[in-house]
Specification:
Number of helices of chain A: 5
Distance between the termini of chain A: 55 Å
Strand content of chain B: over 45%
CATH topology of chain B: Lipocalin
Number of strands of chain B: 8
Strand content of chain A: 15-25%
Oligomer: heterodimer
Largest sheet of chain B: 8 strands, antiparallel, barrel
Order of helices and strands of chain B: EEEEEEEE
Shape of chain B: globular
Number of domains of chain A: 1
Number of domains of chain B: 1
Order of helices and strands of chain A: HHHEHEEEEEEEEEH
Strand order of the largest sheet of chain B: 1-2-3-4-5-6-7-8
CATH class of chain B: Mainly Beta
Helix content of chain A: 10-25%
Distance between the termini of chain B: 19 Å
Chain lengths: ~325, ~120
């Protein structure tokens, strides 16, 4: 009897604590969007009046594609970063635009900067069998789920989608005068990629590099970035989806509102896959008033031990985060 | 076989065989020779060379059984011997740390009646 009373009391207290927790979480979710919205307000005060808001001839927003992260709310499709970027469904200011109607993918001119958080951590869909793997590529992918000897954690610049999967966000810096967009990544190598927007083609006989050679163009409101010239010194996502130097990587960036940047990629790599395939759509989330900061990947980085030691020597109880 | 030219690795995280492999081989612990093998995966086959330089030898066959936890490697090459004839080398090994930067291949080889062992490490 006494035990039952104690159990009942415990149940009531548990319910109370859970209810309190939900209220706190709910409050947090309500409060959180305020900051980005404020950022949008500042942006609109400081920037030229966007054409779309003036009712000018700005192209209409395309229908938002299905978001690989949002419905799942924690599935592997979004991974660590993806869900962080796509889970919140808060009201947002509209997509900021230039006077010519093109979306602004980075910070608004004359205002505090921001960065995108929550890139995709894994490119394949949930059902891995949907990926047209070559046999060796699937085996390597499976093995990497066990071994995780990732170059990025050894401060190696990592191209393709891996550039967006850093813990401290990514900045898209548009320089219209130069007809270039720079993608600055924070964690890991603290490096950058150039997207040439001046209509130039890819050079012939490219020397393979970690970031490859990127050229961009607009498809309506979507920035399409076409990249070739990769080497094989990096993983193209956190999970180790394999690629070869034959990789042709096409990314589509769509800022669907002020706080959301949708991202999708098509992988054409006859060295690793039997045919081209397209990833789910991932969402990155705008972090207003967040700047990139100095980041020295090598400091206190114990990751090199993973490169030099044997598999058996790796202490798997330690989680390495770049 | 003599290592005569330094080459740079151009691949590290793609197909596990792709890249430059340095090591040695020989019939016993005291009689060893340098061995450099450069392999490349073209999407369908592994191609490559042995000991780049004036005495370069084309790989005739190179295969990888990438069944998980198996990772066996087989490659063959024909090389000129000192008397001007051709020796046929057959290498069979097992890859360790297949998805790691510092993977290795160790195994045995035959050349006619000669048998020995080899070890290669990825550059």
């Amino acid at each position: 009897m006494r035990n039952r009373t104690v159990a009942n009391t415990f149940a009531v207290l548990t319910a109370f604590v859970l209810t309190l927790g939900l209220v706190v979480i709910g409050f947090g979710q309500t409060a959180a969007p305020a900051a980005p919205a404020a950022g949008g307000g500042q942006a609109q005060r400081g920037a030229p009046a966007p054409a779309a808001q003036n009712g000018a001839t700005a192209p209409a927003l395309p229908a938002a594609p299905a978001d690989a992260n949002a419905p799942a709310g924690g599935g592997r499709g979004g991974g660590r970063g993806g869900n962080r970027g796509g889970a919140a469904a808060a009201p947002s200011a509209p997509t900021p635009r230039r006077p010519d109607g093109k979306p602004i993918l980075g910070s608004m001119p004359g205002t505090a900067t921001g960065r995108w958080n929550g890139g995709p951590t894994t490119l394949p869909p949930r059902n891995l069998d949907e990926v047209p793997w070559q046999p060796w590529a699937r085996i390597v992918y499976d093995q990497r789920q066990i071994d995780q000897f990732e170059p990025h954690t050894r401060c190696k610049a990592s191209g393709a989608a891996r550039q967006f999967s850093t813990p401290y966000g990514t900045e898209l810096l548009e320089v219209p005068d130069l007809q270039r967009i720079y993608i600055m990544d924070e964690g890991g190598p603290h490096s950058y990629r150039i997207i040439y927007m001046d209509g130039r083609p890819h050079p012939k006989d490219l020397v393979p590099t970690n970031y490859g050679h990127s050229i961009g163009s607009w498809d309506g409101d979507t920035l399409v970035v076409d990249t070739i010239g990769y080497n094989e010194k990096f993983w193209m996502d956190t999970r180790g989806t394999p690629h070869t130097s034959q990789l042709h990587f096409v990314e589509r960036f769509t800022r669907t509102d002020f706080n959301t940047l949708q991202y999708q990629a098509t992988i054409d790599d006859p060295g690793a896959y039997t045919k081209p395939w397209t990833t789910p759509v991932f969402s990155m989330r705008w972090g207003a008033n967040q700047d990139l900061f100095e980041y020295v990947c090598q400091d206190n980085n114990h990751g090199p031990e993973l490169m030099l030691g044997s598999q058996e020597s790796v202490d798997r109880s330690i989680l390495f985060v770049p | 076989m003599i290592l005569s030219v330094t080459v740079s690795a151009i691949a590290q995280e793609g197909h596990p065989l792709t890249g430059t492999w340095y090591g040695e081989f020989g019939p016993n612990a005291t009689k060893r020779s340098d061995l450099t093998v450069i392999m490349n995966w073209d999407g369908k086959n592994v191609t490559g060379i042995v000991n780049p330089g004036p005495n370069v030898v084309q790989l005739k066959v190179a295969t990888l059984d990438s069944t998980i936890n198996k990772w066996t490697v087989h490659f063959e090459a024909d090389a000129k011997n000192k008397s001007g004839g051709m020796d046929h080398f057959v290498f069979d090994g097992k890859m360790a740390n297949p998805v790691a930067y510092n993977r290795t291949i160790t195994g045995t080889y035959t050349c006619g009646t000669t048998k020995g062992d080899f070890k290669l490490a990825r550059d």
